[in-house]
Amino acid sequence: MNAVVATAIEPSSEPTSERLRITEIFLSLQGEARDAGWPTVFVRLTGCPLRCLYCDTAYAFHGGEWVGIDDIVATVAGHGVRHVCVTGGEPLSQKRCIQLLKKLCDEGWIVSLETSGAIDIGDVDARVSRVVDIKTPGSGEVERNRWENIALLTAHDQVKFVICSREDFDWARAVVKEHALDTRCDVLFSPSHGQITPRELADWIVAEHLPVRFQMQLHKQLWGEEPGR
């Protein structure tokens, strides 16, 4: 965790029913999706039931500290920005994440949730922009996709595909078409670092005239693999 941008996490004395296990809370720029470029507080919850082959946050699988929801909200408020992103790991693997998201919305922040799509998103507050990562075959976790989530998506939400190969691209293109995803919400295609080049993916999107948005991870271009950035 980078000392410049990360906030020290103190164990909470609040009741267990009001706590979440937190890996880190830090201020950075949002690196992807609709709000890319905005100064954003990231609340990274600990734990994930998936093991994607390209995962870059394996350090959030275990450990962390139990922190009260009110303490989390106070830490977010201390950074003085409008955008908050709740991420992981898989944040929805902790049931009390739903309470945190509602509290953040009630306090007036612009809130997004980064989720694998393997867990039901139906209880997430409608004010939250749900960024659902549909797992491609190249992720190694395609069987974990919860397809029932697609019917719950609205224009306020976003769907992301991390593309590892041409086969992944063709698979994702078919999913977008089959479910008319572009008529439901923003659809984002990202290149998996080290597996395909950004230019390859960009050329494929243009050649196929896909109704999707190409994106790269801005934070990795700026800070590489440094945790807490």
Rg from alpha-carbon coordinates: 17 Å
Shape: globular
Structural class: alpha/beta
Low-confidence stretches: 1-5
CATH class: Alpha Beta
User: In CATH terms, what is the architecture?
Assistant: Alpha-Beta Barrel
Estimated share of beta-strand residues: 15-25%
Q: Helical proportion?
A: 10-25%
CATH superfamily: Aldolase class I
Number of domains: 1
Question: How many strand units?
Answer: 10
Termini separation comes to 8 Å
Report on the structure:
23% of the residues lie in helices and 24% in strands. It is α/β, with parallel strands linked by helices and 229 residues long. The protein has a single domain, classed as Aldolase class I (TIM Barrel), CATH 3.20.20.70. Strands 1, 2, 3, 4, 5, 6, 7, 8, 9 and 10 form a ten-stranded mixed beta sheet that branches. The N and C termini lie close together (8 Å). Mean pLDDT is 91; it is low at 1-5.
Task: List strands and helices in order, with pairings.
Elements lengths: L5 E2 L11 E11 L9 E7 L19 E4 H11 L3 E5 L9 H10 L3 E6 L13 E5 L24 E6 L2 H14 L6 E6 L6 H11 L4 E2 L3 H6 L6
Parallel strand pairs: 3-5, 5-6, 6-7, 7-8, 8-9, 9-10
Antiparallel strand pairs: 1-2, 2-3, 2-4
GO molecular function: 4 iron, 4 sulfur cluster binding; carbon-nitrogen lyase activity; magnesium ion binding; S-adenosyl-L-methionine binding
Family: Belongs to the radical SAM superfamily. 7-carboxy-7-deazaguanine synthase family.
Pathway: Purine metabolism; 7-cyano-7-deazaguanine biosynthesis
Question: Quick summary of this structure?
Answer:
The protein has 229 residues and is an alpha/beta fold.
